[in-house]
């Protein structure tokens, strides 16, 4: 079991590290800026320099115009908010949502590492299950990937608001946070239940949301009478999937859930992308980075 996990982690590392070096490092660097500009040095004024950067003390002392030079303060803290609820185990085509989230998290982590950023992780179900403080280093990143693949949560449900509140309280300085989830934290009307927490967290941190889903979740196939169960609550019902009315109701509800979730993210300027388990996630991540 341990050997199988190590092989899987190693396989993900080889694949995603290569992607991070060849494709994502430059896009990541451009998309996720540092905290601002930090003072570097002073040098003699040159034609075209911004006079607002004049260092008047040095200018007066040396009797010649000098300007301050600033450099971008690049180092970031990157936090991965990983949904470990029971629904992440679902997967009918491609791979499970858990495995896809592990690969996406690995690509982001190695891209961050190439840019000398620290990476931390927060695992959540209907409560915060585990917090790994931000650090640097390959061993640290491989630990995060391993935890995504093997972590067994105590809770079964999903509470994105609780994860966002924990992030706000635990990370005081502005960070870049990636929320990886299927976003199944909705009321009966398909409205997200975490708006207040998102509003506060997005006001303090730079948040990007990655909605990982399986295509079979979006539309019921017509396969007759089947028993379906909610993986998070274990509640089950019999559903007549041969009924067009039933299939249309389900499709409409899921479409409303998707629309209301995207509308909420857009409202608080949270960049977001949806990636299916049978989809090339490279294209999805590239579109997320380039949209910033």
Automatic annotation (TrEMBL):
Residues of the signal peptide: none
Family matches, as SUPFAM superfamilies: vWA-like (SSF53300)
Recorded superkingdom: Bacteria
Alphabetized Gene3D superfamilies for the sequence: von Willebrand factor, type A domain
InterPro entries per UniProt: DUF58, vWFA_dom_sf
CDD domains reported for this sequence: vWFA
Domain DUF58 residue range list: 41-252
Protein name per Swiss-Prot or TrEMBL: DUF58 domain-containing protein
Species name: Candidatus Merdivivens pullistercoris
